[in-house]
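Sample pair:
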Amino acid sequence: MALASRIGRAGKVGQGRCGAVTESTGERWMVAAKCRTTDPDTLFVEGAAQNQVKALCGGCPVRTVCLAHALDHRIEHGVWGGMTERERRALLRRRPLVTSWRRLLATAQAEYERTADAERTEAS
């Protein structure tokens, strides 16, 4: 069963479970996720097993959007965007005034890419 379908059955955002993440909810990024065909039971683990799940997020083209989704919707369980629930809670505590993680992370990513492009140009 597809990840979006399985996650959609997990519960509602804000109730201690992750919410429905499907194309019908406007979250089209899910179809590009590396984990989209992964059994969701492997994404919602505890302890040391989370490190293996985090490794799956490496190189995912939608990692930043995935993380922003989890932060914006206060998703409490599972690994999202390469961060565990504990790591996300700590980040939310450190940055309580952020109103849109999606906007903040997109801006940071764009700035990083501009800087990297400028450095590559200078090196040429």
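The helical segments are 3-8, 49-57, 63-72, 85-94, 101-123.
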